[in-house]
Amino acid sequence: MSQTLHLPDAVYKALQEAAEANGTTPVDWIAAHLSETGTAKVSGMSCKEDWIDRDFLKTYAQQADDSVSLEAVRQAMAKIPGRLTDDLRAERDER
Fold first, then answer.
1. Is 27 among the domain residues?
2. Domain assignment present for 3
3. What is the mean pLDDT of residues 61-87?
4. Measured between alpha carbons, how far is residue 10 from residues 6, 40, 53 in Å?
């Protein structure tokens, strides 16, 4: 069963920004914070609480550099010789 919650636009925007900063959805962010406080048992939800490393995501979000564009990353990676799949296969075959 699910419920609908109506939030003022400003509150929803703040929730959305907090969730994005942690690399989660607003639903997962709320569920995580309810679980952290111990005020509610969140069971049967489809959130991925069991395997999400929230500390890593928080650190990653703080260290992210938005000044680097996707195009710049693609250009830098295009200079790497060979194919990544070949390297992965060779590494796998070594094991």
1. yes
2. no
3. 87
4. 12, 25, 28
Does 39 reside within a domain? Answer: yes
pLDDT tens for 13-56 read 889 888 888 888 888 888 888 866 554 455 555 555 567 777 88
Q: What is the residue range of 13's domain? A: 9-94
CB atoms within 10 A of CB 3: 4
Q: How far is CA 11 from CA 15, 16, 42, 62, 90, in A?
A: 6, 9, 22, 22, 51
Geometric angle at alpha carbon 57, from 43 and 59, rounded to 5°: 140
The pTM of the full predicted model, rounded to 2 decimals, is 0.39
Angle at CA 4, nearest 5°, toward 42 and 55?
A: 40
